[in-house]
Specification:
Length: 759
């Protein structure tokens, strides 16, 4: 019985030592620690396993020259010790020391009970108070909801972000159970959270549903952590909630748009395929597979061996060309029929060619002109479907890009998160380029005229077209080369065709000379009218062209190459002609070829800012019309952030009603509105109300003729979707001169009307 009582007393002392607020340490005479309670951990920051069995004097800051234990230690002794926390903070400890003796009365160790000196405790409390004030300022300014709650789930603190996310004011929320934010079917979440917090555990971030004051469910991302007091005890929990409802909705919309785009591809009478750099198939699908007698099963990941005879060799030859960086169209005989393949190199990181792919279309045995007509009708159908998908895709991108840009601006350039948001924004903007490529590839995009820097266009196109080949470009451009007005994408296609033709004419390698300079023609040198032009020469030292073939070089489908389509120079001549220029070819067999084209100089000059013209009018009023609610919301936020007064409308009828109430400095009109008045019709009615109205057109249809030539239809500027606050501001700011209403922009719009009437 006595043994049991002694064991009970020993265990009781162990428990009391652990729960004590004081630091209790047992030392050996050589400074090693044998006992270290939780109070010591709270004082010094070291866990028991870090110090037990070790000489801990140096860890706690005891100098080596100080004897330990004190030489005169006998009985009870109180000392003031200078110690150090694990984080380096100096501590003054009031310690009571008692010797530990064996059964013979020999001192074998020291027992220490310590507490913080009053001035150390006051300093720690002052530091903690300052830290609390600093932390409170950070918490209150956060856009996220930051909530403090007790261990029984009662809300104790509620920042401004929580008011914005959940709709409750701090007075309405503090003191109430946090379960008021939790749907009834998710109340078990709170029980699990509180159990983990009481155990001192951090909850891993997770997503869930919460309820706003207005009853609307929102999707949130939660991060929950325990809160400790000065003694290291868990006294509550902190919760950070971020509203991700719009973000997840945008992701779902993007996935749906991608699925629709995939359905279009599956339904079109084409075959999509892709190969890696080793020629192994990575993609093979399309409705036309069955008519050609192929099945995709078992072919993915292997070289394409389904073709018989010369077809396999022809496919391998074309694949090799694409892997060298060529972009071309070729015809291949397959399964007793003909297949036209549009080849594209696939580039990976840093522009390195990682594979090749393309689109294959079956064509019938008939004259090439009839083949092209059939092919054009197929692509017209595909292009019409792709146009609608591209429009919807750009609308989705507009909401994503706008929200990313706003979040980036709210965080500020110094935030690490802003860097990630900027990269996401850039990736989303690159997706816009994919939609333009889809439209151009499917049906040919309408010219979008603007000022074109020919020098920069030559440099970028030549570098891209010759990348990875054994041919280099030698570019000589006049320093003061004039600008031209045209479609940069189409003119880049012309340069790309010429450079690739030159490269193919020199299979052994070499150099392509590209010369660009300003010329003034008197009307006799070429068939062009007299005037100023930019002349570009593309010269190779290749195989050359026979004299009888030079006269036919621009004929559709005429080609001197075994695998050529005969459309490259035809397309180039059409584009140059539509831009008011002319293209010519000079060639000799064995000596090379010179292709020269002229583009008329643009007389437009960049507008000069008048004194004070860069100052935005105070609270310029803007009316923004779009039928997509997410776009209206993000546009309203962006324009408000830029300092404008903004009114939004869902269609043309609503815009007209708002304009009748008051005039606006600028109206921004969506071109295509489902089940409502679109941008062009709205502008006509607005001009009847106010002839000097200043209107900007916006659309996800980058190929629409109004976007291609907006001034012809009465708009003074355009903003293709998607857009960022910067691109919106770049379109608006030049229209706002001086202060007050944008009178200069209105006069320009009125003058444009008079010019159109004269024409």
């Amino acid at each position: 019985m006595a043994v049991q009582r002694e064991a009970w007393r020993h265990r009781a002392w162990e428990v009391l030592g652990q729960v004590s607020a004081e630091a209790m340490i047992a030392w050996t005479c050589d400074g090693r620690v044998l006992v270290w309670n939780e109070g010591a951990t709270r004082f010094y920051g070291y866990e028991a396993q870090e110090v037990i069995g070790r000489d801990a004097r140096s860890l706690l800051g005891t100098p080596e020259h100080v004897p330990w234990p004190p030489a005169d230690l006998c009985g009870h002794r109180a000392l003031e010790l200078n110690r150090r926390h694990k984080n380096g903070t100096p501590l003054t400890v009031l310690a009571e020391l008692r010797p530990i003796e064996d059964e013979h009365g020999q001192v074998i160790g020291v027992a220490e009970v310590g507490r913080l000196a009053p001035h150390t405790l006051s300093m720690a409390r002052a530091q903690q108070q300052a830290a609390r004030l600093h932390l409170a300022a950070i918490v209150e300014s956060s856009e996220d909801a930051i909530i403090g709650k007790s261990l029984n789930g009662v809300i104790q603190s509620w920042n401004g972000g929580a008011e914005r996310v959940f709709g409750y004011s701090a007075e309405e929320a503090v003191g109430r159970p946090v379960t008021m934010l939790i749907p009834p079917d998710r109340c078990d979440e709170e029980e699990r959270i509180l159990a983990a917090i009481r155990a001192g555990e951090r909850m891993p971030p997770y997503e869930t549903i919460r309820i706003r004051k207005d009853g609307r469910p929102i999707q949130v991302s939660l991060t929950i952590s325990p809160v400790y007091d000065l003694l290291g005890r868990v006294v509550g929990a902190s919760k950070i909630a971020r509203d991700i409802t719009a973000h997840r909705a945008a992701e779902r919309a993007l996935a749906q748009a991608e699925e629709r785009l995939r359905a279009v591809v599956e339904a079109a009478p084409v075959v999509l395929f892709a190969c890696d750099a080793q020629g192994h198939l990575t993609l093979l699908k399309g409705r036309a597979l069955e008519s050609l007698g192929f099945k995709a099963e078992g072919l993915i990941g292997r070289p394409f061996q389904g073709m018989q005879g010369g077809a396999a060799a022809g496919f391998a030859t074309q694949l090799a060309r694409a892997l060298r960086g060529e972009q071309f169209t070729a015809v291949l005989g397959v399964a007793g029929g003909l297949v036209e393949i549009r080849w594209l190199p696939v580039r990976g990181a840093e522009g390195v060619i990682a594979g090749a792919g393309g689109v294959a279309i079956e064509i019938a045995e008939q004259r090439r002109a009839q083949e092209e007509a059939l092919r054009a009708s197929k692509w017209e159908l595909f292009g019409a479907l792709a146009g609608g998908i591209a429009h919807d895709f750009n609308n989705v991108l507009a909401a994503i890009v706008g929200n990313l840009a706003l979040a980036r601006m709210k965080l500020g350039p110094a935030s690490e998160a802003a860097t990630f948001l900027l990269e996401s924004e850039k990736a989303a903007m690159r997706a816009q380029g994919l939609t333009r490529q889809l439209l151009g590839f499917a049906k040919g995009e309408r010219a979008v005229r603007g000022m074109v820097d020919v020098a920069a266009l030559i440099e970028s196109t030549a570098r891209f077209a010759l990348g990875g080949s054994n041919v280099r470009a030698h570019v000589l451009v006049a320093r003061d080369l004039w600008k031209v007005r045209g479609d940069e994408g189409q003119l880049s296609q012309v340069m790309n065709n010429l450079v690739i033709n030159a490269q193919q004419a020199m299979p052994w390698g070499g150099s392509v000379e590209i010369l660009a300079r300003n010329v003034s023609l008197d009307g006799h040198e070429t068939a062009l009218p007299a005037g100023d032009y930019v002349r570009v020469d593309c010269v190779d030292r290749g195989v050359g062209i026979d004299e009888q073939d030079v006269a036919r070089i621009f004929d559709p489908f005429f080609t001197t190459k075994a695998q050529g389509s005969g459309l490259g120079l035809t397309t180039s001549a059409r584009i140059v002609g539509e831009h008011g220029g002319r293209i010519e070819v000079q060639s000799r067999p064995g000596e090379g070829t010179r292709v020269r084209f002229y583009l008329p100089r643009s007389r437009e000059e960049a507008p000069e800012l008048q004194a004070g013209g860069s100052v935005r009018p105070p609270k310029a009023r803007i009316l923004f019309m779009d039928d997509e609610e997410p776009i209206r919301k993000v546009a309203h936020a962006m324009l408000t952030h830029l300092g404008y007064e903004v009114c939004v409308a869902a269609d043309g009828g609503a815009a007209l009603r708002e304009y009748r109430k008051q005039r606006y400095d600028i109206v921004i009109l969506d071109l295509t509105v489902r089940d409502g008045l679109g941008g062009l019709a709205t502008l006509e009615r607005l001009r009847a109300l106010d002839p000097s109205v200043v209107a900007i057109v916006s659309s996800g249809y980058s190929s629409d003729p109004v976007m291609a030539d907006h001034e012809r239809y009465g708009f003074v500027a355009k903003v293709p979707k998607p857009y960022t606050p910067e691109t919106l501001d770049a379109a608006i700011t030049p229209l706002l001169g001086g202060i007050g209403r944008a009178e200069g922009a209105r006069r320009s719009a009125t003058g444009a009307d008079q010019d159109r009437g004269a024409r």
